[in-house]
Design brief:
Length: 196
């Protein structure tokens, strides 16, 4: 049985996709042991509660110093004997100490086809705005391991979607989210089966 901790900051639709895949048996032998949120009011925490999963807020209010937040996260991951950390819409960059402690055990979902539209400043709707401004004909999503760089770790899975002429950042985001919800649970499954 693999223990999974999920780090979130927002709505948590990717968290929901992983919860659903575990509950339906598509991801066997895995358990989400906690959801850690950098935002106190993240809807992802409500999603966790709805499924009886412990939610923890570790953010600027209870840990004003970045170093203390990192320590608190590592402590929480260790306490739950975490095998895999999923960044599912987690909007902070992890400190090297945490990456080192969980090397090759942290994966992130990113809403573009890395190496395009990733790195510092490319997150959430900024990614989709940039893709549209760049006149791209396709975009997509990427699941990758997390290393010390921003969106530079080894790629696990990618899937593309078309960009339509009348797309807005919102309509493109919705199309990309659909494939995020496919490839993130798939990557989690591969990890849990020891295929990564
Ligand atoms: C997702 O599109 C995810 O790829 C993106 O934030 C959204 C979170 O949605 N993550 C990043 O931009 C990280 N660089 P969700 O809270 O509904 O899963």
């Amino acid at each position: 049985m693999k223990n999974i901790s999920v780090l979130v900051s927002g709505g948590g639709t990717n968290l929901q996709a992983v919860i659903d895949s575990i509950e339906s048996g598509k991801i066997p032998d895995a358990k989400i042991v906690q959801v850690i949120s950098s935002k106190k009011d993240a809807y992802a925490l409500t999603r966790a509660a709805n499924h009886g999963i412990e939610g923890v807020y570790i953010g600027k209010e209870n840990y004003p110093q970045m170093e203390d937040r990192t320590e608190a996260i590592i402590r929480a991951l260790d306490e739950k004997k975490t095998d895999l950390v999923i960044l599912a819409g987690y909007m902070s960059v992890l400190e090297p100490k945490l990456i080192e402690a969980y090397r090759n055990r942290i994966i992130n979902i990113h809403p573009s086809l890395i190496p395009k539209y990733c790195g510092k400043g490319f997150y959430g709707h900024y990614v989709h705005e940039a893709v549209l401004a760049g006149g791209e004909k396709e975009s997509g999503a990427t699941v990758h391991f997390v290393d010390e760089g921003v969106d530079t770790g080894k790629i696990i899975l990618q899937k593309s979607v078309p960009v339509m002429e009348d797309d807005t950042p919102d309509t493109l985001a919705a199309r990309v989210l659909e494939v995020e919800h496919e490839i993130l649970p798939q990557a989690v499954c591969m990890f849990c089966e020891g295929k990564l």
